[in-house]
Design brief:
Blueprint: E1 3-6, H1 14-23, H2 33-42, E2 45-51, E3 54-63, E4 68-76, H3 85-95, E5 103-105, H4 112-116
Parallel strand pairs: 4-5
Antiparallel strand pairs: 1-2, 2-3, 3-4
Bound molecules: coenzyme A.
The site of coenzyme A has 15 residues, from strand 4, helix 3 and helix 4.
Length: 131
Amino acid sequence: MALELDDDPRRIDVAAVHDYLANQSYWARGRPYEVVERLVREAQRVVGVYDDGRQVGFARAFTDGVSLVYLADVYVLPEYRGQGLGVRLVREMVDNGPYADIRWVLHTRDGHGLYRKVGFGEPSERVMERG
Ligand SMILES: CC(C)(COP(=O)(O)OP(=O)(O)OC[C@H]1O[C@@H](n2cnc3c(N)ncnc32)[C@H](O)[C@@H]1OP(=O)(O)O)[C@@H](O)C(=O)NCCC(=O)NCCS
């Protein structure tokens, strides 16, 4: 297996990302293809995981570039899980990109263990959210 991570947005297989998000994710079920395409296009950074060119993982970040970065749409395909790719993907996004030094925020249902490994913790009492 030739697994690699790449932050080139032109390499993202939007159809594959859309298929996972719209049909398998718990947070973006039914998201239209055009919306996924726009979100990939307008993201400040995307990271893909590839196995011989096949898109097997993805993460997206958007930011004002100064005060806050939001991490979204993180996934690794089921058959590739449990071998450290999730941590590598998030670490590449968070630590190796241009936004390593600003505040990152995310939402997750059960990925807390993964994100703790790359420096995320519980939000402070200063955080508010409008649902
Ligand atoms: C969460 C996810 C990206 C992890 O990918 P992965 O390649 O299996 O992750 P890793 O092998 O690097 O494991 C890192 C840690 O992630 C956590 N983890 C692994 N699989 C997990 C799962 N299915 N659900 C939640 N957390 C998981 C564990 O804490 C693990 O630590 P451990 O090895 O000490 O047990 C992957 O399970 C996934 O795509 N899940 C479905 C989509 C999702 O929930 N995305 C996150 C939305 S916020």
